[in-house]
Design a protein that fits this description.
This protein is an alpha/beta fold. It has helices at residues 8-18, 50-67, 72-88, 90-101, 105-125, 164-175, 189-206, 221-229, 242-254, 277-289, 306-322, 341-356, 408-416, 431-438, and strands at 31-34, 41-45, 132-134, 141-149, 152-156, 179-183, 214-216, 235-239, 258-262, 267-271, 299-305, 360-363, 366-367, 376-377, 380-383, 399-405, 420-421, 423-427, 447-450, 462-463, 466-467, 474-475, 484-492. The protein is globular. It binds nicotinamide-adenine-dinucleotide (NAD).
């Protein structure tokens, strides 16, 4: 158990050394890792050179060539063992997530639980990965579809879910027969090192895992670009800002690699006249302020019917004024720190822009919790005259813009009237309103919820969004298909050669149809 009274750097070091990570990988390196909790230096992590990165990708490719021949249920056993390691080290890894990202202990543990859940899901999947048998139009022919391992899967992850995103991709990729090369956020290399160590433990229990099957590349954007450009990597799953996704997507398109893009959101909830306002209030508070507004699915726009706006917004302002902001490790505060100064500056800039177009801002001021090196803020609720200015952008901070509507058509148009398309929700008890929102003419997002906020997805469903969110899907449902290549097989078990669509090509002039 980690001694939580020790300085944060010592706690991080204790956890990493206990997992067998060599001291020189976290000291004296060029990558300064700072805890958002108090601004203290946690570690100086080693990074990979360009040459080393390419060598490791090569080793991952070699590992894939072996791994693809192992039966899928046996591959599932490796993921089962990974899940066991995660269960065994849940407290330590959850703590490290809290130290490195500033999440509350409950959210840090929740992130590890999400990894465990997707491992369980992938183990079941390893006995499925079904193909199809399709009716053939030709006599004595069979048409089938099967799925094969695709190759090395590159994973580029964002700071805010530093380990769960890797597992959403990697657990599926391993059972699908792929190798994985991971470029974590440069803000969160320590949790990545810990996860790689847990993978290596699982691999050693399994025995005979090809070296390089799971490979870590610690470094910045330049290292990410090496992964994106490498022709030995047929699939790249990139999670982060839309700016990053645009660059990565264009580079992948140039070499016809498959992108799985999981980018920024600008998520809205519609509150109708039939909504249960008590439930709505609680859901909005978690959706907009949980994880200090630093989830891709954070609630950023509240679209409220004019008849309930007064009652809801006055209560919400009360919650915003009193919600506890503080150190997530030493208090029960519900709102922890922003990741860094750039996040705080971005928030202040967005609030100024909102004021400039007539927004009325409640909250949003900096709160001194642990001195000048850390950035805590009171979440901001902004009453807007319309969907203008910063409202159409994603600011990765706890800002909730409130808009008003008269008709449901108008509300849905506002909800869909932004470039992003990740998550959405409606608060209503009227079935017509709910079904209209879920219909083809309703929400245009990858996720549409009812009577809950847009965040906090379960792993069983496919996760991702449309438009500038990138179109990728990962995690549950049939998202596994993106980690395999599809092959169609036509098999002739007869003695003639009928051609599809009745085409004739008789080289012998006889009665054969080909
Ligand atoms: P970011 O875009 O700054 O960085 C994400 C990752 O991309 C990092 O590992 C970074 O090194 C890498 N990167 C940046 N530019 C690159 C390039 N040109 N080539 C290759 N790699 C590159 O994002 P962030 O600040 O870490 O995370 C916050 C953003 O991530 C928000 O926009 C949030 O909505 C989004 N996000 C989306 C999802 C989702 O599933 N849709 C999940 C989590 C976070």
């Amino acid at each position: 158990m980690t001694d939580t009274t020790r300085p944060l750097a010592a706690q991080a070091r204790d956890i990493l050394l206990s997992l067998g990570i060599a001291a020189d990988r976290i000291a004296g390196g060029p990558l300064r890792v700072v805890s958002p909790v108090d601004g203290s230096l946690l570690a100086e992590a080693a990074t990979v050179s360009a040459g080393e990165a390419r060598e490791r990708i090569g080793r991952a490719h070699d590992a894939f060539l072996e791994w693809r021949s192992i039966p899928a249920p046996r591959r599932g056993e490796l993921v089962r063992l990974l899940g066991e390691e995660l269960r065994r080290h849940k407290d330590a890894l959850g703590r490290l997530v809290s130290l490195e990202v500033g999440k509350s202990p409950s959210e840090g543990l929740g992130e590890v639980q999400e990894m465990i859940d997707i491992c369980d899901f992938a183990v079941g999947l390893s006995r499925q990965l079904y193909g199809l048998v399709i009716q053939s139009e030709r006599a004595e022919h069979k048409l089938t579809e099967q799925w094969h391992p695709v190759g090395v899967v590159g994973v580029i992850s964002a700071f805010n879910f530093p380990v769960a995103v890797w597992c959403w991709n990697a657990a599926l990729a391993f059972v699908c027969g792929d190798a994985v090369v991971w470029k974590p956020s440069e803000k969160t290399p320590l949790t990545a090192l810990a996860v790689q160590a847990l993978f290596e433990r699982a691999a050693s229990t399994f025995g005979g895992v090809p070296a390089g099957l799971s490979t870590l590349l610690v470094g910045g954007r330049d290292v990410g670009e090496i992964l994106v450009d490498d022709p030995r990597v047929p699939v790249v799953s990139a999670t982060g800002s839309t700016r990053m996704g645009r660059e990565v997507g264009e580079r992948l398109a140039r070499r016809f690699a498959r992108p799985i893009l999981e980018l920024g959101g600008n998520n809205a909830s519609i509150v109708t006249p039939s909504a249960d306002l008590d439930l709505t209030l609680r859901a909005v508070a978690f959706g907009a302020m949980g994880t200090a507004g630093q989830r891709c699915t954070t609630l950023r726009r509240l679209i409220v019917h004019e008849s309930v706006r007064g009652a809801l917004v006055s209560r919400l302002i009360g919650v915003y004024e009193t919600i506890s902001v503080g150190d997530p490790l030493t208090s029960d505060a519900l709102v922890g720190p922003l990741i860094d100064e750039a996040a705080f500056t971005g928030m202040a800039r967005a609030l100024d822009a909102a004021r400039a177009v007539g927004g009325k801002v409640h909250g949003g001021e900096r709160v001194n919790v642990n001195g000048p090196g850390s950035f805590y803020v009171r979440p901001a609720l902004v009453e807007m005259p319309g969907q203008v200015g910063p409202v159409i952008e994603e600011t990765f901070a706890p800002i909730l813009y409130v808009l008003t509507y008269r008709t449901l058509d108008e509300a849905i148009a506002l909800q869909n009237g932004v470039p992003q398309g990740l998550s959405s929700s409606i608060f209503a008890t009227d079935i017509r309103e709910i079904e209209r929102f879920l219909s083809a003419r309703g929400s245009d997002c990858g996720i549409a919820n009812v009577n809950m906020g847009p965040s906090g997805a379960e792993i069983g469903g496919a996760f991702g969004g449309e438009k500038e969110t990138g179109g990728g899907r990962e995690s549950g449902s049939d998202a596994w298909k993106a980690y395999m290549r599809r092959q169609t097989n036509a098999i002739n078990y007869g003695r003639t050669l009928p051609l599809a669509q009745g085409v004739k090509f008789n080289v012998d002039g006889g009665s054969a149809q080909a």
